[in-house]
Structure formats: C-alpha cells, structure tokens
Design the sequence.
C-alpha cells in the first residue's frame, strides 16, 4: 500500500530520468448543475488542472451547459447516451452491450455525439466513456463511424489503440469503494493504484505514453474523497516531473499504424 511519500519518491525517479509523468482527470455522470459539480469545477480551476467531464447526453441540462460556457479548463467527453441498463437481470449493468441490435446502439451514440457537439463545440472531445465501464467489443471498431475517436475504460492499456482509429485512454485510479455503499477507498489503496501505474510506465511494464488517469464521481463523494482529490492535485501540480494534461494531444494522430 502506497503513501504520499511513495508518490513523491516515484515522481522524483521520473525527474531523475529527465521524464515527465503525465496525468489526467476524468469525472463521470455529469448532466445537471449541482453543488457537487460546481465544487468539482472550482477545484480544477483553483489548481489550473484540466477537468474532463463525462456527460450523459440524454440528461444534459441547459443549466450545466450555460454554467460551463467560457470555462476553458473543462473538457467534455461522452458518457454513453442515456446511462440506462439494457441487460437482463443477473448479467450486470450494460448500456453498450449486445443485448440490443448493434445498429440501435450506434444510432443512440450518434445522437449523443451530435448533442454534445452542439452544446460544447471544441470543448467536446470525441472520447467515449462507457457507462459501468462495459462495452460490447464488436462495437469498438465501429466507433469512428459515429465520430468517436477514443475509448476510456479502466486499467493499463495493452496497446495504444483499442481498434483502428480508436485510441485507448483509460483511468487507473477510482478513489471510491462502491460495494456496500459509496465511500472513500482509503489513501493507501488509492495511491497504490496511481503509484503502481506510474512505476509500471517508468519501468516499461506498461505503455509509458499512456497518461495516468484519475476517475472521480462528483455525486458519490464523501468528504474524505474530496480531501484526497484536493491533496493529490495540490501535491502533484507542485512537482516538476508531474503534469496534468488535457486529452487533445492524445487524440492525434487518430489512425493506428498499418
């Protein structure tokens, strides 16, 4: 289990090798303007850290769009379409599974893409975040057909492209323990996920180019989770070997090599 000191030592190792450890921040389930999302956006703005809101297109409200207008610190990603479970009982929660015709699923994703593009323009990045981190593998290669050029799941990616034209940009730390009710997973466990991925990148056991991703859920945060996220951002922005990035550069080029 890692500590804040372990994180500092790992970043020092990156600095000693003359390398920059890139990090990125994704927050899921954005749709409405709430006190929690206002707190989240304010935290990112305070430290100048790019924040990627995974928004649910069907539930997106005008109030949230208006509140984010002109905020260059925020990027928007696509969180499925309606965040509705279509799987039978006992099969887990799936919106983007094979439980419906593939054409219908792609049609909804295209509708969601168009809605977010109209609402946010250039701040909408063509990155799909599947609800419940589940997607039918047969859909991935068809995402470019609806405009989506990246897929954000969980864990270290095995390679840069999840399919031709679809960049994998995963999250590696979720500081919330979900089973038994949402609550903070604990500093040691959360840092273990971050430090572990950073070390794997540095040592060549994971793709060194993939930025280390933090995934939060503003609506499910207890105060301990808020405190951890604030401490993580504050400690890393002050380290010369750490850099929080927006995903724009990670989307270019969008085509896998032949």
Sequence:
């Amino acid at each position: 289990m890692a500590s804040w000191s372990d994180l500092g030592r790992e970043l020092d190792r990156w600095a000693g090798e003359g390398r920059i450890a890139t990090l990125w921040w994704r927050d899921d389930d954005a749709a409405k303007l709430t006190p929690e999302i206002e707190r989240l956006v304010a935290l990112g703005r305070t430290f100048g850290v790019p924040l990627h809101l995974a928004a649910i297109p069907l539930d997106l409200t005008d109030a949230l769009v208006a509140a984010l207008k002109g905020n260059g610190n925020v990027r928007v990603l696509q969180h499925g379409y309606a965040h509705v479970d279509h799987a039978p009982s006992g099969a887990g929660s799936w919106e983007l599974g094979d439980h419906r015709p593939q054409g219908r699923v792609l049609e909804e994703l295209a509708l969601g893409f168009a809605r977010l593009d109209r609402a946010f323009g250039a701040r909408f990045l063509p990155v799909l975040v599947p609800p419940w981190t589940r997607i039918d593998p047969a859909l991935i290669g068809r995402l470019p057909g609806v405009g989506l050029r990246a897929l954000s799941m969980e864990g270290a990616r095995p390679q840069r492209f999840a399919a031709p034209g679809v960049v994998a940009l995963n999250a590696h730390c979720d500081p919330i323990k979900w089973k038994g009710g949402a609550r903070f997973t604990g500093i040691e466990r959360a840092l273990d996920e971050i430090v572990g991925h950073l070390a794997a990148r540095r040592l060549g056991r994971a793709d060194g180019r993939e930025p280390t991703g933090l995934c939060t859920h503003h609506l499910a945060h207890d105060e301990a989770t808020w405190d951890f996220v604030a401490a993580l951002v504050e400690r890393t922005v002050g380290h010369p070997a750490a850099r929080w990035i927006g995903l724009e550069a990670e989307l270019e080029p969008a085509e896998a090599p032949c």
Q: What stands out?
A: The longest helix spans residues 102-120. The first strand starts at residue 21 and ends at 30. The chain has a mean pLDDT of 95.
